[in-house]
Amino acid sequence: xxxxxxxxxxxxxxxxxxxxxxxxxxxxxxxxxxxxxxxxxxxxxxxxxxxxxxxxxxxxxxxxxxxxxxxxxxxxxxxxxxxxxxxxxxxxxxxxxxxxxxxxxxxxxxxxxxxxxxxxxxxxxxxxxxxxxxxxxxxxxxxxxxxxxxxxxxxxxxxxxxxxxxxxxxxxxxxxxxxxxxxxxxxxxxxxxxxxxxxxxxxxxxxxxxxxxxxxxxxxxxxxxxxxxxxxxxxxxxxxxxxxxxxxxxxxxxxxxxxxxxxxxxxxxxxxxxxxxxxxxxxxxxxxxxxxxxxxxxxxxxxxxxxxxxxxxxxxxxxxxxxxxxxxxxxxxxxxxxxxxxxxxxxxxxxxxxxxxxxxxxxxxxxxxxxxxxxxxxxxxxxxxxxxxxxxxxxxxxxxxxxxxxxxxxxxxxxxxxxxxxxxxxxxxxxxxxxxxxxxxxxxxxxxxxxxxxxxxxxxxxxxxxxxxxxx
Length: 472
Hints:
By secondary structure, this protein is mostly helical. The chain has one domain (27-461). 77% of the residues lie in helices and 0% in strands. The protein contains 17 helices and no strands. The chain has helices at 27-57, 61-97, 101-128, 130-135, 142-157, 160-174, 179-201, 211-233, 251-283, 287-323, 327-354, 356-361, 370-382, 384-399, 403-415, 417-429, 432-458. Helix 1 (27-57) packs parallel to helix 7 (179-201) and helix 3 packs antiparallel against helix 5 (142-157). The longest helix has 37 residues, at 61-97.
């Protein structure tokens, strides 16, 4: 392939300017300059999922249920890699803000080394315990269980590429380069869009693989993304060209990465675990209900992943400016971002509420399933704006290094979904009670996070360091 993932030292520096100065100049310009490619990347990643779902939905709701159940574990895996990604991203941003380039390299190398180890552990566990993991959901169809197992073995068995992509994206973002991950993910999306129909339906010489084909297309696209990221990393002159994964990273850097990463990882894993419990509850209404949840969740990613992308930009912006003690830029940046993300959340709410039926029919056309899907999208639509504000604020708090408080708030309010769902389903709402439990807690989290972060901002010193970098 030309470049090994072991070292980024090969290659020539790219003369093109890809890094955005987050410490000086206009706040809105630097923040949106970083955020827009991240948001576009998130939309591309969403397109990955929607492309898979659109094609697999044409196989039938049973195939969607299989992919949906197994896909819960790929979601769970994002919590595992957060151990490395979050600590690495935050500490690299802090180090660059303090002008400590050598320290940034140590954190970047440590994050990547930890990522590789975590990927191999998760892949081994997914293949050893496939039956137990799929059996958790209590799916009724033997074919769905078998398809889910195959999908799980492929996507999680080759999770290394997904893990590397997430950590490298975090590190690129920390150094102010959000264009490279966008380029890489666009390339991967193109590969995925070509392979999906070929591997799922098997036209001509291709075998019909259905759920396994969707998994193979996704993993192949992730490999392509990794290759592009490594190629571009070898041309970077800020961080990656100084990283050699064969070098040993001192234990103190790993401890700091884990100090910040563990709370965020626990938050993400518990979040997905709670969703898995809810999926098991949903399965009691039949496999079609699981398929509806899967489709609705992927459609919701349009707002969720975009807001999380803006949150990643806030993470880097806040991290660098906090490290440089430019506290006024931290405050102003959050206020501007809050307004932008609020508008996006309102737009996606309107789209889901008023466009529920045509959107859902893109993925599943079975008449007995469509009304369930419409109800899900309408109820979810109500909570989109506060959910977007929550994700933005989480990114800002993590940029300050407050990963523990983020985790506590998220875990407590997300865990409340289970008893709330049990209560609401018993009030006559039935399956819609679970949808309302998701929306009510999203509204609560958005409100709590914004109020908490405003309180945190008031406790920061009043002026920027040396009066510099306040911006406009």
